[in-house]
Amino acid sequence: MSGQSITDRIAAAQHSMTGSAISKAVCKATTHEVSGPKKKHLDYLIHCTNEMNVNIPQLADTLFERTANSSWVVVFKALITTHHLMMYGNERFIQYLASRNTLFNLNNFLDKGALQGYDMSTFIRRYSRYLNEKAMSYRLVAVDFTKMKRGIDGVMRTMNTEKLIKTLPIIQNQLDALLDFQANPNELTNGVINSAFMLLFKDSIRLFAAYNEGVINLLEKYFDMKKNQCKDALDIYKKFLYRMTKLSEFLKVAEQVGIDQGDIPDLSQAPSSLLEALEQHLASLEGKKIKELNADTRASTLSSAVSSLSSTGMSFSRMDEKEKQQALEEEQARLQALKVTDFVSLFAFFFFFNHFVYMYDFISPAGFDALGDLLKPTIPTHTAPPPPPPQMAIHPGGKLLANDLDSSLANLVGSECPNMRPKMHWSQPGEKKLTGGQNWQNKTMSTTQWGPAPMMGQMGGVPVMAPQPMMYNQPVLRPTNPFAPMPGAQVSYPVFVHSYALNNTFATDELYVENVIKHVNVVCF
């Protein structure tokens, strides 16, 4: 069984169509693929827990629904995803889990249809019990022991005696459920159970660190407690020593499956003489006749025990510091990647904007200057009647073209292709030229007048204006294709064509001009 199943793909497509991004992410994180949930899906779900408009109960219920699947892969990955959100998601998620009466009811889960179904089903049952206990611990004390503040001024070190004696058994129960996972190195054979074991390993370090600090606080207060409190405290300390032994076995498995040695803390037990001193003090409070250690010896033994347990607590902090540093490096890498992406986007924007400007200049009428004002010929000082406006014709494509073909061509090409414009000059208004019209003349053009002079007529009693005279310049020795290159012509540089620019974004200027000449019919001479 490898890769996403057809069922996974269909479910993801259904969630895409319905617009449920959270359900799709949960489906993607809990596919039938025999590997741990992908980081991108877990990160997205963590982000969802931090959004105030996200329905946390709906998110949790979606994960619960996935645990009803018959495949051990889907169920195991649903538990892993839930555990990941409890560890790294917003506290609202674990608060909701703690408020439920029941969480995972997988005590009878068994997948008989898969190759590893029997073995993995055992670990699923144990794993679900730990997650239930983790949520129950939060329900009892309203705090996650793996996230509480540690150190001399931490929560467990500053807790009063009465509350401390009630809190430490809750940590013990949660740690017992974790250590009951009992996976051997030979049983960690796939990416799914390895992902679960890694989360359990991180929880065990932080949970025992809080447990260790609570015991230190308990020992420091022990000789000032009442008899019943001393009795409870002594029982807690004995259980603590037993759990330290079990944790060391759990950490040996972690070391054998490839977890870095630097992430595994060193467990330093208190001297056995401390236990003897504690028992003697309780016996004296119960009225038993027993020789108790003097105050100096007792203080020395206690100081030595606290020092050993404190060194253990410091070793637990190394993993937290390493994980924080790793998270910081990942965040810096994401910011750097974001900066690079923004730079590329900005560069692309200005590049296309630049080509758009050149395209606009290329296709815009040549009769406008850089500020958009209409260019006009120099007006002489003497007065003369203004020439009539040139007659315009409607092009079949819907554009207005001058009746004069050379004027249309000049307006189309404009200042971007100065060598393509016919050589022309402006004449004084009213000046008569034999070879041109009233306003301008072409040195190489001959002019033929078509149509009668304007006159008034009458049609059906309604006066109408006769057609205005239309002037057509007939070029001399013009090639068949007016836009084809002429022999010996110089290309006006640069030429920018928008359609080609979009397909050749990063071409150099020289290569760009060369390819433009090859791909378009309009060139400048």
TrEMBL record:
What is the annotated quaternary arrangement, including any partners?
Answer: Binds to clathrin; involves primarily the C-terminal sequences, but the full-length protein is required for full binding capacity. Binds phosphatidylinositol 4,5- bisphosphate. Interacts with PIMREG; this interaction may change the subcellular location into the nucleus. Interacts with AP2A1 (via its alpha-appendage domain). Interacts (via N-terminus) with VAMP2; VAMP3; VAMP7 and VAMP8 (Via N-terminus). Interacts with LC3/MAP1LC3A.
Q: What is its main location?
A: membrane
State the encoding gene. si:ch211-200p22.4
**Organism (species):** Sparus aurata
Protein's recorded name: Phosphatidylinositol-binding clathrin assembly protein
Q: Which GO terms describe its cellular component?
A: clathrin-coated pit; clathrin-coated vesicle; extrinsic component of presynaptic endocytic zone membrane; Golgi apparatus; nucleus; synaptic vesicle
- Gene Ontology process terms (BP): clathrin coat assembly; clathrin-dependent endocytosis; synaptic vesicle budding from presynaptic endocytic zone membrane
Q: Which InterPro entries match?
A: ANTH_dom, ANTH_dom_sf, AP180-like, ENTH, ENTH_VHS
The record's keywords, sorted A to Z, are: Acetylation, Cell membrane, Coated pit, Coiled coil, Cytoplasmic vesicle, Endocytosis, Golgi apparatus, Isopeptide bond, Membrane, Nucleus, Phosphoprotein, Ubl conjugation
